[in-house]
Design brief:
- The complex is a heterodimer of chains A (588) and B (461).
- Chain A is of the alpha+beta class and 588 residues long.
- Chain A folds into 4 domains: 3-70, Elongation Factor Tu (Ef-tu), domain 3 (Beta Barrel), CATH 2.40.30.20; 117-187, RNA polymerase II/Efflux pump adaptor protein, barrel-sandwich hybrid domain (OB fold (Dihydrolipoamide Acetyltransferase, E2P), Beta Barrel), CATH 2.40.50.100; 201-433, P-loop containing nucleotide triphosphate hydrolases (Rossmann fold), CATH 3.40.50; 451-587, Orthogonal Bundle (Bovine Mitochondrial F1-ATPase, ATP Synthase Beta Chain, Chain D, domain3).
- Chain A contains 16 helices and 26 strands.
- In chain A, the strands form 5 sheets. In chain A, strands 8, 18, 19, 20, 21, 22, 23, 24, 25 and 26 form a 10-stranded mixed sheet that branches. In chain A, strands 1-2-5-4-3-6 form a 6-stranded antiparallel β-barrel. A 4-stranded antiparallel sheet of chain A has the order 12-11-9-14, with no helix packed on it.
- In chain A, a hairpin with a 2-residue loop joins strand 11 and strand 12 (144-149).
- Chain A is globular and about 105 Å long.
- Chain A starts with a strand and ends with a helix.
- Chain B is built from 12 helices and 21 strands.
- In chain B, helix 10 packs antiparallel against helix 11.
- The longest helix of chain B has 25 residues, at 365-389.
- The radius of gyration of chain B is 25 Å and the shape is elongated.
- Chain B starts with a strand and ends in an 8-residue tail after the last helix.
- The chains are: A alpha+beta (588), B alpha/beta (461).
- Chains A and B meet through strand 1, helix 1, helix 4, helix 6 and helix 9 of A and strand 5, strand 11, helix 6, helix 7 and strand 21 of B.
- Strand 1 of chain A pairs antiparallel with strand 5 of chain B.
- The complex binds adenosine-5'-triphosphate (ATP) and magnesium ion (MG).
- Magnesium ion binds next to helix 3 of chain A.
């Protein structure tokens, strides 16, 4: 065993000497307490280490030990429903063994090596298999098969495979490789977090990633395997949106990374998810979720690692052919962690003190998302949604700008909407999605042929409203024509009755695409009829008082199971006909 | 073993460097002994093989390279704790400054503390009634929350904090309760106002105070919140007490951080504040909360004065990113003689949703809250419009909103410094306000509540 020696400690940065065999990004154990660290730079004899634990009390002269491998995660049955810190230490087990506070030098393996799982083979003796092939599975939760795949880089013929009750360390398959060597395979893989896992090839996203959030699915959709970012000032709703997606999005696996944010937000997930049910499978949400929690008060170097740990776990499930989604809240804290380490290394700073490689790191992180053909030649996808927390809400800052260069969807959260409690505070005029076409084609086929027409109309009403509001601000509403007043009225209805969605209401929290269509169509249909009737003498004030408008506003509270009640086309039409009859009577 | 050196080789701002050090550790407490025998305290910021970079809490005035001695104590900055600290007053560096004599420690703890395991947290959900409508009704505080007051110079944020400290209660409970107060670089008068008011309400015997006044050493301010939070953790999680922490003024704390960063020639972040200020503030604020299986809790109200009333300034901005909401004190409402001058629109309590509703406050709370917010936001727009175009240009609906917004400020937000409203009263005033609007405007309220609570005055439709 080789030992080096600490020569300097400054916060999370440690300099050590006497480690001639060290490699870049190798894991080390620092000091007598064996704190976790990673080599991030080497200069001559000096090795620079970022320490994943608090360094208080460390002394120059204490030993440093090389571990011989890069920072890695363990992948295998037992991941689901777990909560890990940024370097995959299991927080639940740490709590059980060490109590409420995270002390230093704790070393608990991420996956239980005692628990047994029933391995069910999918292949037979004599089958040729290669990297990524599913040899069998473990029913990890009632709704999730955890496939046991041939680890990357391995190929051979199965010589032994059978149904067994096994721990992750036990051999479940024996292969004979090309070189006639016997190879025993167990149920756990180790993979370095900073390297992406191999796939056969990437494919272009071709399906919308349904989230049940109206402003997202209808106006700014994400694709399966797509990327999105949610920038916004504090309190504008980034975390709530991320939680909403983690709850309701149509995915097989959710990896939620709480990166440098609040402890209570993780508790919230831990308390809620075990009770909420996936609308599609009817199983508890926790049974499809993996949590990474490196909160703001936990060490910054581990925060830097947390997004990589998360995305590696997500890739692993994608490799099984699953639809996976990763939420990272907040990527700004990750960038700040990079900045802090870079500052201690006295690197030449780029914009606002961030390291010059900020952009390329962000890009390579989002590049790990995508729809792919797995090594086993199946489709799999990994969608990534990152929150960004720009200082002062200023979108020109480096993290937002670097992120916008790579992601395809931008949900712009605005403080003014949040102040008026218009949630989600995603601004309809500033946001965009480059997956709109793809989503339209899908929804037109699967929901209603009028899907995109209605949406385009709604969007043009909202744009028109913004222009009209300028006029109103200068001269008041009197200067507007009846049709223009109608635009204001409909825009208000689109905002309040459709875009506004309360995450905390049992029904409103999730809306299927079918219901989204009906809700918007009610509003658009009323608008179209009103336009026609204005020609016949109807004025906007009368429309405003139509009783049906209140009903349209309450459709959001109608449960999915009573979908037929959401279609108000007939009563809307009747309202106008009733007006016409009354109008004729009174003018006679 | 404690070692002493006379090898000072560098002094700059609050930082000194000592050479030829045989052994020192990162974060270690250091004592500096001046020729006249007086002692100052410091902390190792960088530990090298034979060199230490030390931050001096009391500043480096009068230090001399030749005959200043440095003693390495071998332990981090610590605080002595025992149940007897309750009712006592300490300096910003944890030394008793009242007449009570020294503390006999039952336990000693490093003031840095360890992070709470996120898995160990229990979600705060117990409603705290502060008796202030703008908070209880719209920005509800719960036990274990960190909710700062964002204010500006010359605004009554201290009154507000004191009113909360005096009136805060959890309905139907008689738990042990304590206040831990940290004065960070405030004036003698401000600090005195807190002490006197705690004394008047009888809370002083249940308080622990750490006082660093404007005239006290600047760098000591960095340690105040850590002494405060370590004490709070001890009271809450070892003695089962419900603790309310008040820290004032965080702005002074951040300025002290900036001073150290500048002396170390670090690359400054926004407006000269260090790039790690987010993490640094989080290491204070996140020590607040509830823990599974523990009876006590820590609720924190940091007060900060926004330089130039600018909420995008890094101090409020980074605080807002860490805390669970914020209470905005507004200069324009203060000018209208409204007390407390809380601007509810930018204010927010993120934990309110689990603290309100049936069995906690009232079943209509969430709906009423959302509606009041939406209506007041609209009302404020109309108020602005009316200023430009005159009231005659407003539509009939707009006029309702205008009336609503005025009444809301005068009757809902405005209340007396000694007025302690029950949540029922707050809810009822809320409905009185909503009843100014036509029922059809109340789109965020369920029908059943409208039928039950709306006070029709013949102004529907
Ligand atoms: N869809 C929604 N429905 C109802 N309330 C919401 C919704 N979105 C946000 N909110 C409200 O806004 C508050 C702030 O949201 P959130 O915590 O997501 O902000 P954030 O952008 O993550 O802030 P920070 O950057 O400080 O973490 C929530 O506590 C909640 O009260
Ligand atoms: Mg957030």
């Amino acid at each position: 065993m080789e030992y080096g020696k600490i020569v300097s400690i400054s916060g999370p940065l440690i300099i050590a000497e006497n480690l001639p065999d060290s490699k870049m990004y190798e894991v080390v154990r620092v000091g007598k307490e064996k704190l976790f660290g990673e080599i991030i730079e080497m200069h001559g004899k000096q090795v620079f280490i970022q320490c994943y634990e608090e360094t208080l009390g460390l002394k120059p002269g204490e030993p440093v030990q090389l571990e011989g491998f890069p920072l890695s995660v363990q992948l295998g049955p037992g991941l689901i429903s777990s909560i890990y810190d940024g370097i995959q230490r299991p927080l639940e087990l740490i709590f059980d063994q060490f109590g409420s506070f995270i002390a230093r030098g704790i070393d608990v393996p991420p996956l239980s090596s005692k628990k047994t799982w029933k391995f069910i083979p999918l292949k037979q003796k004599g089958d040729e298999v290669s990297a990524g092939d599913k040899m069998g599975y473990v029913q990890e939760t009632p709704s999730l098969k955890h496939y046991i795949m041939v680890p990357p880089g391995i190929q051979g013929t199965i010589v032994e495979i059978k149904e067994v009750e096994a721990t992750i360390q036990d051999t479940v398959v024996i292969l004979r490789t090309k070189d006639e060597e016997k190879m025993e395979i167990n149920m756990v893989q180790t993979w370095p977090v900073r390297r992406k896992r191999p796939v056969k090839h990437k494919i272009v996203p071709n399906k919308p990633f349904v989230t049940g959030q109206r402003v997202v699915d209808t106006f700014f959709p994400v694709a399966e395997g797509g990327t999105a970012c949610v920038p916004g000032p504090f309190g504008s709703g980034k975390t709530v949106i991320q939680h909403q997606l983690a709850k309701w999005a149509d995915a097989d696996i959710i990896v939620y990374v709480g990166c440098g944010e609040r402890g209570n937000e993780m508790t919230d997930v831990l308390m809620e998810f075990p009770h909420l049910k996936d609308p599609k499978t009817g199983r508890f949400l926790m049974e499809r979720t993996v949590l990474i929690a490196n909160t703001s008060n936990m060490p910054v170097a581990a925060r830097e690692a947390s997004v990589f740990s998360g995305i590696t776990i997500a890739e692993y499930f994608r490799d099984m052919g699953y639809k996976v989604a990763l939420m990272a809240d907040s990527t700004s804290r990750w960038a700040e962690a990079m900045r802090e380490i870079s500052g201690r290394l006295e690197e030449m700073p780029g914009e606002e003190g961030y390291p010059a490689y900020l952009s390329s790191r962000i890009a390579s992180f989002y590049e790990r998302a995508g729809k792919v053909q797995t090594l086993a030649d199946e489709p799999g996808s990994l969608s990534v949604i990152g929150a960004v927390s720009p200082p002062g809400g200023d979108l020109s800052e480096p993290v937002v700008q670097s992120t916008l260069r790579v992601v395809k969807v931008f949900w712009s959260l605005e403080a003014t909407l949040a102040y008026a409690r218009h949630f989600p505070a995603i601004h309809w005029l500033n946001s965009y999605s480059l997956y709109q076409k793809l989503a339209d084609q899908n929804f037109e086929k699967e929901v209603d042929a009028r899907w995109s027409k209605d949406r385009e109309m709604a969007m043009s009403i909202l744009q028109k409203e913004a222009e009209l509001q300028e006029i109103v601000r200068l001269v008041g509403t009197d200067a507007l024509s009846e049709k223009e007043k109608l635009v204001l009225l409909t825009a208000k209805s689109i905002k309040e009755d459709f875009l506004h969605q309360n995450a905390f209401d049992d029904v409103d929290t999730y809306t299927s695409p079918q219901k989204q269509f009906l809700m918007l169509h009610n509003i658009i249909y009323l608008h179209q009829l009103a336009e026609q009737y204005i020609e016949k003498g109807l004025n906007t004030h009368e429309v405003e008082n139509f009783a049906i408008r209140e009903k349209i506003g309450r459709v959001k509270y109608i449960p999915e199971s009573e979908m037929e009640r959401c279609n108000l086309a007939d009563p809307i039409k009747e309202s106008f006909e009733k007006w016409e009859t009354q109008h004729k009577e009174s003018s006679q | 073993m404690i070692k002493e050196y006379k090898t000072l080789c560098d002094i700059a701002g609050p930082i000194i460097v000592a050479d030829g050090i045989e052994e020192c550790s990162f974060g270690e407490l250091v004592e500096i002994i001046l020729p006249d025998g007086s002692v100052r305290k410091g902390e190792v910021l960088e530990a090298k093989s034979n060199r230490a970079l030390v931050q001096i809490y009391e500043g480096t005035e009068d230090l001399n390279m030749g005959n200043t001695r440095i003693r390495f104590t071998g332990k981090p900055v610590e605080i002595k704790l025992s149940p007897d600290i309750i009712g006592r007053i300490f300096s910003g560096f944890g030394e008793p400054i009242d007449q009570g004599g020294p503390i006999i420690a039952e336990t000693t703890k490093s003031i840095l503390g360890d992070p709470i395991n996120p898995y160990a947290r229990d979600y705060p959900s117990e409603f705290i009634q502060t008796g202030i409508s703008a908070i209880d009704g719209l920005n509800t505080l719960v036990r274990g929350q960190k909710l700062p007051i964002f204010s500006g110079a010359g605004l009554p944020h201290n009154d507000l904090a004191l009113q909360i400290a005096r009136q805060a209660k959890v309905l139907g409970k008689q738990d042990r309760f304590a206040v831990v107060f940290g004065a960070i670089g405030v004036t003698f008068e401000e600090s005195n106002q807190f002490i006197e008011s705690l004394r008047d309400s009888g809370a002083l015997e249940r308080s622990v105070l750490f006082i660093n006044l404007a005239s006290d050493p600047v760098i000591e301010r960095i340690s105040v919140p850590r002494f405060v939070m370590t004490t709070a953790e001890y009271l809450a999680f070892e003695l089962d007490i419900h603790v309310l922490v008040i820290l004032t003024d965080i702005t002074n704390y951040c300025e002290a951080l900036r001073e150290v960063a500048a002396a170390r020639k670090e690359i400054p972040g926004r407006r000269g504040y260090p790039g790690y200020m987010y993490t640094n503030l989080a290491s204070i604020y996140e020590r607040c909360g509830r823990i599974k299986g523990k009876k006590g809790s820590i609720t924190t109200m940091p007060i900060l004065t926004m330089p130039d009333d600018d909420k995008t300034h890094p101090i409020p901005d980074l605080s807002g990113y860490i805390t669970e909401g914020q209470i905005f004190v507004s200069r324009s409402l203060h000018a209208k003689s409204i007390y407390p001058p809380i601007d509810v629109l930018p204010s927010l309590s993120r934990l309110k949703d689990k603290g309100i509703g049936k069995d906690k406050t009232r079943e209509d709370h969430a709906n009423v809250m959302n509606q009041l917010f939406a209506a007041y936001a609209r009302g404020r727009e109309v108020q602005e419009l009316a200023v430009i175009l005159g009231e005659s240009a407003l539509t009939p609906t707009d006029k309702h909103y205008m009336k609503f917004a005025d009444a809301f400020e005068k009757h809902y937000v405005n209340q007396g410094f000694f007025e302690d409203r029950s949540i029922q009263e707050t809810m009822d005033i809320g409905w009185e306000m909503l009843s100014i609007l036509p029922a059809s405007e109340l789109t965020r309220v369920k029908d059943e509540f409208i039928q039950q609570y709306y006070q029709s005055k013949g102004n529907e439709k």
